[in-house]
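hiii so um. not sure if this is the right channel but i have a protein structure encoded as tokens and i wanna go backwards to a sequence. like what aa goes where. can anyone help
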């Protein structure tokens, strides 16, 4: 394996993440606005459709993982699911009405749910083998997402169906790159059920899962409602794109700075800082601020997400035994990315219909406040353990 071939493979993977997240950024943040304006769906219907993806993720991500393990053909699965997910999105253009759109959203979500876990598995395996930083590959995902929302925000003012064409085009191109991804050798997987049984007896881990649910859920659901929030504040499609671009691109520098900050302040204090910033952001949005304030504070997403993710993953590795770390990460992803996202997206739709988009962010703020309180509880537990250790060892 030469340096030239390694570099070529790395560029292929970076291109895959760029295109995949460009596809997601093209459609998902603007889909709620499209459903409201073009399809005239109400808040309940929008909330239900937008919550399909995280619900499907909970159930189908493990299924795709099992299929990948069983067939030992992750490249074929990644290529096929990426292409099919993009193709089904064209159904949004071909069909209209709540029932048809609901069905299309389910089909897209089923195949889209395979893309990230399978590609992450391939990428992490390869980068570990060649000694390359996985973060330098995944970073292109954030770049693709931010650029997509900015570009599609402008193009959507010309034709709002362009978001589906972009989603389709980007995933078709990504499927071509997926075919050139490095093959992954089959490895022995831990017994998920046994790992779950052991890990659910750990009080600290359960508390951490609740914090993840309360903090990560609203941050992911914000991708659904941020467009409606900008629109409700008097913004345009272009304005939505600008705000998302600032928010998403601000994550990268804070992710890079997280390592030094964690060494200086500690994992839980960084998580507390990230949670506190989320709380301030959601409370601010509830007060119906002017657009310039929204744009100026979009960088808060970089602080909250950019710091919370690396700190949370390191804390997870710290508090769980090595032999069940993989199980712990699986549960962390399911609770935060899946269940928390679904809960906040679904209830957000009901609150949006009954009250306003601004009350959705009050709901997010309440959850974040609970997350801050529980994080403080984790800090106190850690202090008590350290004090007990000092007394015992002394």
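sure thing!! here u go:
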């Amino acid at each position: 394996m030469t340096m030239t071939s390694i570099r070529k493979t790395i560029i292929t993977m970076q291109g895959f993440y760029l295109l995949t997240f460009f596809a997601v950024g093209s459609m998902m943040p603007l889909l709620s606005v499209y459903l409201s304006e073009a399809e005239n769906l109400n808040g309940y219907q929008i909330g239900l459709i937008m919550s399909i993806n995280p619900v499907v993720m909970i159930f189908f991500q493990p299924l795709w993982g099992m299929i990948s393990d069983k067939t030992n053909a992750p490249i074929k699965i990644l290529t096929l699911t990426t292409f099919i997910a993009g193709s089904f999105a064209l159904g949004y253009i071909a069909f209209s009405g709540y029932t048809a759109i609901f069905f299309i959203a389910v089909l897209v979500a089923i195949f889209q749910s395979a893309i990230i876990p399978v590609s992450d598995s391939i990428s992490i395996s390869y980068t570990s083998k060649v000694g390359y930083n996985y973060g330098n590959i995944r970073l292109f995902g954030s770049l693709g997402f931010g650029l997509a929302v900015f570009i599609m925000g402008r193009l959507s003012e010309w034709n709002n169906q362009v978001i589906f064409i972009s989603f389709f085009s980007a995933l078709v191109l990504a499927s071509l790159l997926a075919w050139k991804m490095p093959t992954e050798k089959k490895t022995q997987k831990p017994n998920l059920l046994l790992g779950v049984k052991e890990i659910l007896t750990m009080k600290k881990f359960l508390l951490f899962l609740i914090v993840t649910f309360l903090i990560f859920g609203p941050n992911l659901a914000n991708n659904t409602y941020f467009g409606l929030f900008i629109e409700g504040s008097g913004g345009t499609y272009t304005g939505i794109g600008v705000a998302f671009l600032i928010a998403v691109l601000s994550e990268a520098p804070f992710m890079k700075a997280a390592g030094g900050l964690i060494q200086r302040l500690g994992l839980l204090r960084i998580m507390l800082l990230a949670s506190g910033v989320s709380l301030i952001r959601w409370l601010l949005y509830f007060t119906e601020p002017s657009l310039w304030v929204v744009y100026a504070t979009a960088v808060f997403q970089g602080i909250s997400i950019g710091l919370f993710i690396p700190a949370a993953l390191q804390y997870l590795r710290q508090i769980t035994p090595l032999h069940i770390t993989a199980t712990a990460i699986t549960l962390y992803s399911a609770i935060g990315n899946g269940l928390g996202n679904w809960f906040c997206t679904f209830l957000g739709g009901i609150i949006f219909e009954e009250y306003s988009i601004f009350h959705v962010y009050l709901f997010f703020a309440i959850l974040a406040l609970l997350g801050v309180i529980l994080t403080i509880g984790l800090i106190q537990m850690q202090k008590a353990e350290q004090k007990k250790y000092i007394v015992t060892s002394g």
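oh and The mean pLDDT is 84.
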